Amino acid sequence: LRLKLEDDTILEYPVDPKENKFPFLRNPDILVGENDLTALSYLHEPAVLHNLKVRFLESNHIYTYCGIVLVAINPYEQLPIYGQDVIYAYSGQNMGDMDPHIFAVAEEAYKQMARDEKNQSIIVSGESGAGKTVSAKYAMRFFASVGGSSSESNVEEKVLASSPIMEAIGNAKTTRNDNSSRFGKYIQIGFDKRYRIIGANMRTYLLEKSRVVFQAPDERNYHIFYQLCASASLPELKDLSLLDAKDFFYTSLGGDTSLEGVDDAEDFEKTKQAFTLLGVKESYQMTIFKILAAVLHLGNVDFRSERDGESCSITNQDEHLHHFCRLLGVEHSQLEHWLCHRKLVTTSETYIKNMSLQQAVNARNALAKHIYAQLFNWIVQHINKALHTTVKQHSFIGVLDIYGFETFEYNSFEQFCINYANEKLQQQFNLHVFKLEQDEYMR
């Protein structure tokens, strides 16, 4: 076939009669740039990509519908399309009446909940760095605005305040994304009979614990550690004996500890304000920071190999071990002993065995991961307590913000689980969009 392309170049396209593979057909001019992909005459990958590209480059539109699904492109900059006035513009409108927008999807969920008396959920999925967490935050802001609580309880403010805390303790810089969620979260926003927000509940999935003790090159540990180190000079944190993030083993593995355009000390203030808004007492906040500082000190405990590498020891002068014991209130001599030995219990007797240097390091890392995971769970429970309501819930809207899929040279087990979860979601989406359509035709 001799084809004439848009820019008038001629392309020869070989056609094999056996294969019957023809080139993809382009859509007529009038349909290019359409705001709903299902309106295209030919719906194949090149047509979809071309349509998205035209909308993005020529009209600056980052949102496009595909039936009931919203496709978003991350512009990697703040756009002025999320103000209060835009929320009011979309409130009460039908999904197809205005330009595609995350607020239109949120309004549709809100309307269907009120009209059909059915609980709704919004699923945000996509690659790491695609903009899922930000999209979920905008959806929640929409519900907070249109479903503002009738009482003085400021529930909606508390729902929004959970975001900075969860980002501090659950997000980190990866090579794909400076603010990557390293856990999955599902927030259910509860409404009363008049469809006002009365409370919320958050569930989290599979926190990437291994990040606490290991980061790949150019990656960082969880934001909260850097926020603490950047605020080390604050009088209330003097007791924590914090150093610069470069000087802690657990925060310097990835190399550069700073983030472009991010002020960790400023973010620490925001995290503290969010804690206060959720009713976490000053004394509790200090305890949280103590535990986090203790984890950092634990990473710097220095093991010395002894006796041909069969056993190891910690020097008595190890200041990081002293800080760890002081912050957590544990006995120094006991901890020093149990970091280098382990107990084996058999039916008849109990052995105390020496650990090699590598075994001791692994045991220390396991302890750090466990402490962090328990702290993470405690904070989530506390946020849920603050968002809990005694009023009877009439209906809810759920927002699922899952971690993004990434494929590296070497994928951790957690990354495998993350990618698998995304595949399952994708299947759910395919089933929903295509299978249901087919059933409709069959009927």
Alpha plus pi helix count: 13
CATH architecture of the domain at 24-274 and 394-442: 3-Layer(aba) Sandwich
Q: Work out the radius of gyration.
A: 27 Å
Q: Give the overall average pLDDT.
A: 92
Percentage beta strand: 5-15%
CATH superfamily of the domain at 24-274 and 394-442, called what?
Answer: Kinesin motor domain
Number of strands: 14
Distance between the termini: 40 Å
Largest sheet: 4 strands, mixed
Give the % helix: 40-55%
Global morphology: globular
Protein structure class: alpha+beta
Q: Runs with pLDDT <50, length 5+?
A: none
In N-to-C order, the SSE pattern is: EEHEEHHEHHEEEEHHHHEEHHEEHEH
As for the CATH topology of the domain at 24-274 and 394-442, it is Kinesin
Describe this structure in words.
The protein is α+β, with helices and mostly antiparallel strands. The protein has a domain at 24-274 and 394-442: Kinesin motor domain (Kinesin), CATH 3.40.850.10. The chain has 13 helices and 14 strands. The strands form 6 sheets. The protein has a 4-stranded mixed sheet. Helix 4 packs antiparallel against helix 5 (155-170) and helix 5 crosses helix 6. The protein is globular, with a radius of gyration of 27 Å. The relative contact order is 0.11.
Q: How are the secondary structure elements laid out?
A:
Blueprint: E1 2-4, E2 10-12, H1 45-59, E3 63-66, E4 69-72, H2 84-90, H3 102-116, E5 120-124, H4 132-146, H5 155-170, E6 171-172, E7 180-181, E8 184-191, E9 197-205, H6 223-230, H7 249-252, H8 264-277, H9 282-299, E10 303-306, E11 311-314, H10 319-328, H11 332-340, E12 341-345, E13 350-354, H12 357-387, E14 395-401, H13 413-442
Parallel strand pairs: 5-14
Antiparallel strand pairs: 1-2, 3-4, 6-7, 8-9, 8-14, 10-11, 12-13
Helix pairs in contact: 3-4, 4-5, 5-6, 5-8, 5-12, 6-8, 9-10, 9-12
